[in-house]
Amino acid sequence: MSRKLLFQIVSVIALLSMLAACAPQTTPAQPQAEEPTAAQPADEAAPAADTGGEVKGKFYWVQNSAWHPVHQYTQQSFLAGCEKLGLDCELATTDENTLDALVALADQVVSRPDAKGVAMWFGGLPVAKPIIEKAKENGIAVALPHFPVEEGFYADNAVQIAADTSKYPDAVAQAMCDELKAEGITEGSIAVTENNHNATEDTVAQVFTDGIAKYCPEFTVLPPELEGPEPTQAIAVATSIIQANPDLVAALSTTGGGPTTWAGAQKETGKKIVAVGMDATRVNLDLVTDGEVWGLVAQPLYEETFGSAELLYKMANGEEVPYWTVLDAPLVTKDNTQHYYDLLAELEPKFRDAVNPDEVQSDEGADSGGSSDAGGDVMGKFYWVQNSAWHPVHQYTQQSFLAGCEKLGLDCELATTDENTLDALVALADQVVSRPDAKGVAMWFGGLPVAKPIIEKAKENGIAVALPHFPVEEGFYADNAVQIAADTSKYPDAVAQAMCDELKAEGITEGSIAVTENNHNATEDTVAQVFTDGIAKYCPEFTVLPPELEGPEPTQAIAVATSIIQANPDLVAALSTTGGGPTTWAGAQKETGKKIVAVGMDATRVNLDLVTDGEVWGLVAQPLYEETFGSAELLYKMANGEEVPYWTVLDAPLVTKDNTQHYYDLLDELEPRFRQDAVNPDAQ
Q: pTM value?
């Protein structure tokens, strides 16, 4: 992976399940209601009609992120289908964005005695399996729109209605090739961006890539990048892609926010490309009409949700329906927008006023950390800025920073928030660099472009900035910022070599190796790629599978890893690029009864115990202590005018049973200082 790509994205939060192209994902960055709303108020349901045919009972639409305009579009389309058939239907939705809220709501609905059929906006997540089984036990039909899943994955009371993601992206690729040819463009690169990695978007990206290779192989499709759900950040990602690839001529976004993303990036850079996104929303149609993007894939949101009502009606009355009702997903350009404007004119007046609950920001102030008298000639304070401060790994980094301050006799303070959102982190960092007493600030920010104005502001205010853990290219930020981290382009190679040696020692000579990530960002993507290259170099007889997202929620992560084992009977090893990975792969081995050579990240106590107990083979000891302890020293030196290298490169050794003690000793020193009452606010 090039240095240009290395710093493009470092996701701080997992993403909302809010756009039509995306399967719902656990989002550690979202506040969660204590109890999800069972259903929208009665005036949002379809006008009650006499139950059609011999059907008795209600038909429900289950969905989270119900505030979102695309989701409101699907809700009203479902109700339109109910109205046509004279069915008694109700929206059972919640504005909460979390997977937990969706699961709780769906479980509640399939327990209702009046439920005859339920359409669920769930995708292919394994966590839905027990809910659909419960629906089967209760005699409830289930329709799954939009997200194709393999027949047999869920119980046989569930059917799906969706476009075929393995086919329509091929037609998009062909049309894009034709358009490039018509414009006289004969070479260059093509970008692909996704909201998040899930079966739907990943398939679209891959089929589109294969189509470009088939119809116009003179173009190079870049590896997919995550744009995420937040428009400003998404535009920044796409802008970075354009800047890093001067030969870029086209782009496909697999998400409904993509047209805004690529229209914005073209405005930012002044470069015109052939851009295609998803979903015929009014905003997106207007962008096509105005020529700001070339086309849209009209995923059949109306047809699949309207049609879900009919499928449920038929199934509830014992009629046989095909497992998959396959729909078209046509390409929309300036010539064929009117049909979609007409649909919006029909449905939009029924939308309710709604806002994303996660836009309500916390007013939580900075937490006070241990401090001491200022050392040397330094005047003022040194701050540690971090969100998700409740997390044990983040508490570890906080206390390591304070330990560095204590050693130097510096006056330091933790400026943290338990909130998990990027917005909360940005607001907090901006506040800290505005403090008149701030002399230096260490930020747990990574390579996000959104940090640029904050670091510039720090420079204007004479504040030194240290960026631990996430390598970014020199010059990306202002020159008051330095970094301290392991080199993600090097240490995964040693992990690959050690894994190859271990497999050889165990007499294993062939098979597949999995790679899982929390989310796609510059750090984890680089680790995954370098590790993959290392396996190819040291033991090419093994096949490394494409990276999969395990996410931050342990139960879901274990389900993902379990699915990987079940889908790949020849699996012999796995690398997780995230600190939750050891728990993920230990749990998956327990679930399946299959033993593999598993390696994860971070020498936390939980992870060390898993190594000691033989439940995973090894850990990569990312230098969390050294880089955060060392941040204090870097800030002290910079604040006093001393020259320091841009990147202080640290080691990230592999830890197996033979060398755990050093890391236990560090934990014994720091853990007593952790906040024992700290909890994830999104788990409440």
A: 0.48
